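Hi Y.,

Following your request, here is the sequence exactly as I used it, all 464 residues.
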Amino acid sequence: MKRALLVLACASLGACSVGPDFEKPQAPLPAQWPQQTQAAAIDSQWWQALGDPQLTSLVERAAKANLDVRVASNRLDQSRSMRQVSAAAQAPSVGLGASYQRERNSAVSLLDASNLSGQAPFELWNTAADASWEVDLWGHVRRAVEAADAEVDLSQAQRNGVLLSISAETASDYLKLRGVQTQLQVARQNLEIAKRSRDLTQTRLENGVTTHLDTANSAAQVASIEALLPMLQADQDRLINALSYLLGEAPGALANELNTPKAIPAPTASVPLGLPSELAQRRPDIQASEAALHRATAAIGVAKADFYPRISLGASFGFQALDGSNFGAWNSRQWSYGPSLYLPIFQGGRLTGTLQLREHQQQEAALNYQKTVLGAWHEVDNALTDYRAEQQHHAALAEAVRQNDMALSVAQERYRQGAIDFINVLNVQRIRLQNQSALVNSTTQVALDRVQLYRALGGGWPSA
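Below is the corresponding structure, written out as tokens. Let me know if you'd prefer a different format.
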């Protein structure tokens, strides 16, 4: 028996692991980006490139306080605990038990260890230390631990994905807020111009050099601009609430901090994209799909190991006595040791079906990996296209507003001189307001597209 135990122990040290070994998949990515402008590595602290300390503060606070991030962190802790549970099967389990019973046997039973023939009650004192260990000859436990390690990697990648999403969403809401506040400033500036035009038409009407048509048109222009203000104010309040929620705060908690208007942050001119091959190491969703593939591959090994015999070693040592005065004496000792074998012979197709299921799940995970990588490639290409197109759009709108300013100045002067009708001034004012509003939206969108580009590239995230 001692030799058998020694052989089993040595065999466990050289045991193999059945099932396929995981091989890191090759990401189907190009050697160079089709629209590459700069191969420099992207800044992991990408939000700082927008040059707004308040934005940096919000992003870093959201990483610590956001409830989605905290849930993801908790799930990571859960996966680590589950890994500890799986790894515990690699070590022997040892337990200590003790019991005391006062009982009386039947007088007509087959066995009466008390030798009292059921005529009187007796005591039974018992204690034992038990140890058991499964000899992992086929890697059943090792593959289970490997799958648990992959689950930890998956949870880590998912947490990083949540951090990236929350930082991008925080930055986006902040940029939208500054855009709305700039829209409010533009509307108020145009409202003052419209009011001056209304006063001018009223004066000209009183002097008999214009008609009520001009005064009505100018008053309508004032009212239409005033109608924009409450809606823009509501947008501002909604965005402040959105940022408050991202930081785990009550509605309006950040109002005092964010009510004061600030300029829309402008990103730096350079667009560092890094190499396509780095995308698989940066994007959390690609890392998560790779970990899911690793977990599915390890699960095949667990399913295959179930086809093989399972051998366990067990041992027990303790004391048993019918009298408390004898309990613990050397002659009350009892012990046992030896191996146990379990061999699956007929399972009704359960093991075969489980193995087929695990193989299909691995195939699905491999397809999901390819899909995720391809989707990431498309996201980067689309984000870069949107960013460049919006930059060109912004440049054209900036020139349009410059020309509108010149046109409005000329139109106002010629109206004062009586050379043109007020309808011409009104049209110039309307076009100028439209283009100014579009320029503000484009300025905001340029920054938003830059954030989306960083997100598509798998830019870094603040530590929670």
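The domain at 19-91+138-308+353-456 is CATH 1.20.1600.10 (Outer membrane efflux proteins (OEP)).

Thanks again,
Q.
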